[in-house]
Amino acid sequence: MAQLCFFAGTMDCGKSTLALQMDHNHRARGLVGVIFTRLDRSGEARLSSRLGLSTPAVEVGEDLDFWDTVVAQLSAGARVDYLICDEAQFYTPEQVEQLARIVDELDIEVFAFGITSDFRTELFPGSRRLIELADSTQVLQVAALCWCGRRATHNARVVGGAMVVEGEQVVIGDTAEPVEQGEVEYEVLCRRHHMRRMSSTAAHAAALSADVLPFDLNACPVPPST
Ligand SMILES: Nc1ncnc2c1ncn2[C@@H]1O[C@H](COP(=O)(O)OP(=O)(O)O)[C@@H](O)[C@H]1O
Ligand SMILES: Cc1cn([C@H]2C[C@H](O)[C@@H](COP(=O)(O)O)O2)c(=O)[nH]c1=O
Fold first, then answer.
1. What is the ipTM of this complex?
2. Is the CB of 116 under 6 A from ligand 2?
3. How far apart are CA 110 and CA 86, in angstroms?
4. Of 171, 187, 189, which is best to mutate to test ligand 2, by the most ligand atoms within 8 angstroms of its C-beta?
């Protein structure tokens, strides 16, 4: 029996790489799949991994109906054994429901990949619906790390080195440093540092100022107030 599987994790934990591997392994056994994505960093209608691999994909616009798309392909005589759905956090809840229907009524496997929460730690609507409906939700094993060395569990949005917690939910970007100053970048953090709004730049600055703190109090002309 087919299943709706959600592979979740922070940014940069290998979701798109796994999506490409799942596609490769299924194709290698003669199965036929359709690859979908939405708003991939590399441009429209491509699924790309930071490891350098990428493949053409069907771009999921807001109006795309997965059920109609797959039924049209089957009606035209094409075979469809599985769907790969990357950047699934950006899908609408209705589109996730269409995916569940495809699994249940057409017995087609659906492998969805996405980040669960946004830069404010709030669930994306697509991810919320996936968590509600999926047969399984798996957190990827390869841990992305916070600058402190702990497992990164949250995504932070950073502008000019400072973490921001207000803004549009969707702003496409990367975890690499932006080319243009003032552009949005993302950084993965552990919960502790996400809640303290401590990006690596802020931590570095704090470490530098701590280095200059232990000055000689006796040399101070005015006694410091307590
Ligand atoms: N130069 C590299 N060498 C080895 N692994 C790398 C390199 N660059 C990126 N990666 C791996 O790729 C992962 C990101 O993969 P990607 O599929 O793009 O992530 P996601 O889709 O979850 O954002 C990183 O966590 C890291 O494990
Ligand atoms: C946290 C967060 C992320 N995004 C965007 C940034 C990237 O374009 C994608 C995630 O891609 P990845 O392959 O998982 O690295 O999502 C966003 O729009 N809003 C957010 O809050």
1. 0.98
2. no
3. 11
4. 171
* Closest CA to ligand 2's atom 9: 172
User: Is the Cβ atom of 186 under 6 angstroms away from ligand 2?
Assistant: yes
Domains of the chain: 1-142 (3.40.50.300), 144-211 (3.30.60)
**Whose CA is closest to 4, among 105, 137, 140, 95?**
137
Give, for all 226 residues of the chain, the pLDDT tens digit. Answer: 999 999 999 999 999 999 999 999 999 999 999 999 999 999 999 999 999 999 999 999 999 999 999 999 999 999 999 999 999 999 999 999 999 999 999 999 999 999 999 999 999 999 999 999 999 999 998 889 999 999 999 999 999 889 999 999 999 999 988 778 889 999 999 999 999 999 999 998 888 887 665 555 555 555 544 3
Any ligand 2 atom below 6 A from CB of 122: no
- How many DSSP H helices and E strands does the chain contain? 6, 11
